[in-house]
Amino acid sequence: MLRFSFKAGTTPEREESVLAAMRRTSQVESTSFSFVGPDLGDPAEGYTHGYCVALKDLDALDRYMYDPVHLEGDFEILPHLSRLSQIRLSDDADPDLNDKIFAMHQKKLATYPEWDRLLGTIPGGGAPPVNA
């Protein structure tokens, strides 16, 4: 799950274009469930929208991360975000799951340095934290 907001000055047309790219990404083959829409949380937190995808397992996550629609969409989406918050949940009891997901994320950052750079320009967009 992601909570996000758009950069100041982003036109309504550009916002809709970004949301459309997110909807395309959220509906790739590897996802089981998805939504893109308004954030219903406290407006004082600064988020305006949410993005959620459900993935069956780590294989689905790997396919999702490298799906061409996702890769292309990120370069359309990320430049327009001013704030981003990540939330990961699972029903998998594997105590190493968070570390495995973090390693997958690190591999993608290394594979796509421009993606890493774009994420780094968004507060909250960096690597997901690993369990202490």
Give the helices and strands as they follow along the chain.
EHEEHHEHH
Oligomeric state of the chains in view: single chain
Which regions are unreliable across 5 or more consecutive residues at pLDDT < 50? none
**How many extended strands?**
4
Query: What is the average of the pLDDT values?
Result: 92
Count of individual helical segments:
5
Q: Which shape, going by the Cα principal axes?
A: globular
Percentage of β-strand residues: 15-25%
Helical content class = 40-55%
Q: By helix and strand content, what is the structural category?
A: alpha+beta
Strand order of the largest sheet: 2-3-1-4
How many whole angstroms does the radius of gyration measure? 14 Å
End-to-end separation in angstroms reads: 21 Å
Largest sheet: 4 strands, antiparallel
Write the layout of secondary structure elements.
Layout: E1 2-6, H1 12-26, E2 31-38, E3 49-55, H2 58-66, H3 68-77, E4 81-86, H4 97-111, H5 113-120
Antiparallel strand pairs: 1-3, 1-4, 2-3
What's this entry about, in short?
This protein has 132 residues and is an alpha+beta fold. It has 5 helices and 4 strands.
What would you say this structure looks like, in words?
By secondary structure, the chain is of the alpha+beta class. The chain is about 45% helix and about 20% strand. It starts with a strand and ends in a 12-residue tail after the last helix.
Which features does this protein show?
4 strands; 43% helix; alpha+beta; 132 residues; four-stranded antiparallel beta sheet
